[in-house]
């Protein structure tokens, strides 16, 4: 029987998260993006017009995962340590993986407890990374 082509698509259902080398759960949501910062300057060719000039960028990271309690064992909010986060996603068939490694991660908030009746505990983390690289 032939394999369906749709199993080659990345659908976000098989994400995993490692922080400091420890797998902390199955990600229900994850994103790493480069945000470019701009400065607006006057356009000499157009009266009143502006030109956006790139001035730099930041690497933004956000993760939502189902808690296993492992995150309490990791000192991931220690600002004196370099924190590494690896986010992995695979296609429906599990035959292809996409992994991104973020170094020098700092998280913006630390949640001590968060629950909702009838729901599996999920932890949301957002912050910035010094560097981002694709892994093989």
UniProtKB/TrEMBL annotation:
**What InterPro entries does its record include?**
XkdM-like_sf
Gene3D superfamilies according to UniProt: Phage tail tube protein
What protein name does the entry list? Phage tail protein
């Amino acid at each position: 029987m032939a394999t369906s082509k749709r199993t080659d698509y990345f659908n976000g259902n098989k994400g995993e998260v490692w922080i400091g080398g420890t797998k902390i759960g199955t990600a229900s949501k994850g994103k790493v993006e480069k945000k470019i910062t701009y400065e607006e300057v006057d356009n000499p060719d157009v009266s009143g017009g502006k030109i956006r000039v790139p001035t730099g960028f930041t690497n933004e990271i956000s993760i939502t995962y189902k808690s296993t309690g492992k995150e309490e064992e990791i000192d991931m909010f220690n600002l004196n340590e370099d924190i590494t986060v690896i986010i992995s996603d695979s296609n429906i068939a599990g035959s292809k993986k996409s992994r991104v490694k973020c170094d020098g991660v700092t998280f913006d908030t630390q949640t001590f407890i968060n629950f909702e009746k009838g729901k599996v505990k999920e932890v949301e983390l957002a912050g910035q990374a010094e560097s981002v690289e694709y892994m093989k």
